[in-house]
Amino acid sequence: MSASASVYLPIFPLPDLTFFPHTLLPLHVFEPRYRSMIGDCLGRDRRLAVVGLRPGYEENYHDKPAVHAIGGAGEIVRSERLATGRFNILVRGDCRIRIEQELPTDTLYRMVKAAPLVDVGSERPGVEARVVAVKRLGHQVLEVVNRSTPQLEEALDSELAPGVLADRLAAALVPVPSIRQRLLEEPDVDRRLTLLQATLERLLKRLTEGR
Fold first, then answer.
1. Please, are residues 122 and 190 in contact by the beta-carbon 8 Å criterion?
2. CA distance 79 to 69
3. Are 150 and 176 a contacting pair, CB within 8 Å?
4. Are 37 and 46 within 8 A, CB to CB?
5. Res. 2: pLDDT tops 50
6. Residue 86, exposed/middle/buried by CB under 10 A (0-12, 13-18, 19+)?
7. 141, 204 in Cβ contact below 8 A?
8. What is the pLDDT confidence band of residue 211, given thresholds at 50, 70 and 90?
9. Which end of the chain is more exposed for a tag (fewer CB within 10 A), N or C?
10. What per-residue confidence (pLDDT) applies to 178?
């Protein structure tokens, strides 16, 4: 996806969910409006955006509750339509997007005009040291909780681009929705890694104190 041109995407607003680039997101789709959206996506380019709902969405959930301006966009790479009409899908994230405008539509679901965002700051002095630090903290967190996945181990042990590493670790290890959203909203890789490092340090401290 080009970062220079606006894109037009359906949005899937979800509470307390943050969709990072460079990750895979499995979803079970059951609401009629989103079943319609997935059917249309599969008939077009298979692309959509997942955006978080802002606090207080409950009263307006079935209409058009406020969403965060920054979300994750990606492509449906696997889909299964169930006999009930529901879908199981797997979405592969490829970029952050900033919603510029919500568009009028006659569909059950919402459409937006959005600008893709690109990572910046990955070549700044100090980034390499922060990469080393977040990898070390990631290994320590996994050791404490005694739970991992091959994908997470690969992220920690391979030479990923700093922004990709930050996104994959944030998706896998950061539990607090508000902090996850802050990490998603940060296009500056240096600052994203700094926030991730501080978050993992606090998480590790809580985990070790609770043992």
1. yes
2. 27
3. no
4. no
5. no
6. middle
7. yes
8. low
9. C
10. 95
C-alpha distances in Å from residue 15, one per residue of 46, 166, 178 = 22, 22, 11
Mean predicted confidence (pLDDT) in 31-60:
91
- Alpha-carbon distance 37 to 31, whole Å? 10
Tokens representing 189 are 């890789």
The answer to whether the CB of 115 falls within 8 A of the CB of 102 is no
Closest Cα to residue 13, out of 88, 87, 99?
A: 99
Domains and CATH numbers, the chain: 7-117 (2.30.130.40), 127-209 (no CATH)
Nearest to 73 by CA among 106, 126, 35, 111: 111
DSSP SS3 for 126: coil
Distance CA 25, CA 53 (A): 17
- Phi–psi pair at 200, nearest 5 degrees: -70, -35
| Residue showing tokens 């070549």 | 123
What is the rounded distance in angstroms from the CA atom of residue 36 to the CA atom of residue 31? 9
| Residue among 48, 56, 54 nearest 16 (CA) | 54
The answer to whether 200 and 138 have CB atoms below 8 angstroms apart is yes
